[in-house]
Specification:
By secondary structure, the protein is α+β, with helices and mostly antiparallel strands. It folds into four domains: 128 residues, N Utilization Substance Protein A, Chain:P, domain 4 (2-Layer Sandwich); 68 residues, Nucleic acid-binding proteins (OB fold (Dihydrolipoamide Acetyltransferase, E2P), Beta Barrel), CATH 2.40.50; 140 residues, GMP Synthetase, Chain A, domain 3; 47 residues, no CATH class. It contains twelve helices and 18 strands. Strand 17 and strand 18 form a beta hairpin. The termini are far apart.
């Protein structure tokens, strides 16, 4: 019987991932609780030990030798003890053995409840430890159920929680559908009566970042670095990358042969558009690249480097701004710079107005300076009529 008991513990260890030592500790505590229930005692004087090899269970309790017994559960009379041995003195401790067979049905149920509770707590602890180390990582799970605005995802021995705020608008969460999720946060079992809570996201930019790490080995080994990534989930992502190896093209590495790598990420995100642009040490170049797919004629950066005026060809203005301002909005977030886009015509018209204001002495600030008898704007010489030469702003193909 004892051998069967140990085999059962070893089987539990394999199935639940809970160490045999922890299970034995739970059983010892359960037997202490059973002793208390059986003897209507506080149990402070009982000691239980389970042999992890043989399965032998030893239950011992102590009594203190006293002159007058007030608590029979913890005290024994000196007169009684001297019937066995004259050497006993008041204050001595006497140890007795108790058999598990003496425990009643209620005591046995108490022991079972304690063991089951201990196993549950151990399982919760293991789940928490497994997931706390994976925070800000991605995980694959199956949609379990949808309750109101909350989606529950099976991610192994527990369910992940996808709140409405972390869902992608228009994305369908169908039971049994397999998807990848970003592990947003992990709450300890102590903070929730239902055990550890795994909060997931489909809208977090980190999901795109981790998907590229999976698809692009150069990102995983840090040959290619994602400098910044901004996202409007379900619609568009902009990602700036650079290479730590001159022989590796960061854009090509992310796109992959015939676009296979980036397409794998796009497919996982349900068709979300992804712009991958190069990142450099030159802010103006980064702003110009971030406004892809539009062409840029010129970037005029403010002294604070917190804002910039960007000039684009007239026919590229709507493309540069994007639908509902999305392209310029994402570009500004990507570079950390406020961007004011002007068409070629509007930019020159503003220059002409500034020039007229300067001549008429209207008091408006002008960026036009006089050098060597000619007018200069932002380092570029104006022609005789006060206009910039468009050739100065052509973007090399």
């Amino acid at each position: 019987m004892n051998r069967e008991f140990i085999l059962a513990l070893e089987q539990l260890e394999k199935e639940k991932g809970i160490s045999k030592a922890l299970l034995i500790d739970a059983i010892e505590k359960a037997l202490v609780s059973a002793y208390k229930k059986n003897n209507n005692s506080e149990g402070d004087n009982v000691r239980v030990s389970v042999d992890g090899t043989t399965g032998e269970i030893e239950i011992k309790y102590r009594k203190t030798v006293v002159e007058y017994v007030e608590d029979p559960e913890t005290e024994v009379s000196i007169d009684v003890m001297r019937e066995f041995d004259d050497d006993y003195e008041i204050g001595d401790e006497v140890e007795y053995e108790e058999s598990v067979d003496n425990f009643g049905r209620i005591a046995a149920q108490t022991a079972k409840q304690v063991v089951m509770q201990s196993i549950k707590e151990a399982e919760r602890g293991i789940i928490f430890e497994n997931f706390i180390g994976r925070k800000n990582d991605i995980i694959t799970g199956n949609i379990q159920r949808v309750m109101g605005d909350t989606v529950y995802i099976n991610v192994g021995k527990t369910d992940g929680i996808l709140t409405k705020a972390e869902q992608v608008e228009g994305e369908r969460y169908i039971p049994n559908k397999r998807m990848k999720f970003f592990i947003l946060d992990v709450k300890d079992a102590k903070q929730s009566p239902k055990g550890p809570q795994i909060f997931l996201s489909r809208s977090h930019p980190g999901l795109v970042n981790k998907l590229f790490e999976l698809e692009v080995p150069e990102i995983a080994d840090e040959t290619v670095v994602i400098e910044n990534l901004v996202r409007e989930a379900g619609s568009r992502t902009k990602m700036a990358v650079y290479s730590t190896d001159e022989g590796v093209d960061p854009i090509g590495a992310c796109v992959g042969n015939r676009g296979t790598r980036v397409q794998a990420v796009v497919d996982e995100l349900g068709g979300e558009k992804i712009d991958i642009v190069p990142w450099t040490d030159i802010i103006e170049d980064n702003i110009s690249n971030a406004l892809s797919p539009s062409q840029v004629e010129k970037v005029i950066l403010a002294d604070s480097e917190k804002s910039a005026v960007v000039v684009v060809p007239d026919f590229q203005l709507s493309l540069a701004i994007g639908k509902e301002g999305q392209n310029v909005r994402l570009a500004a977030k990507l570079c950390g710079v406020k961007i004011d886009i002007k068409s070629h015509t509007q930019f020159y018209k503003d220059l002409e107005n500034q020039d007229d204001d300067a001549v008429s002495g209207s008091g408006k600030e002008s960026n036009i300076e006089i050098e060597d008898g000619g007018q200069v704007f932002d380092g570029h010489k104006l022609d005789d009529e006060g206009f910039l030469n468009p050739d100065d702003f052509k973007v090399e193909e």
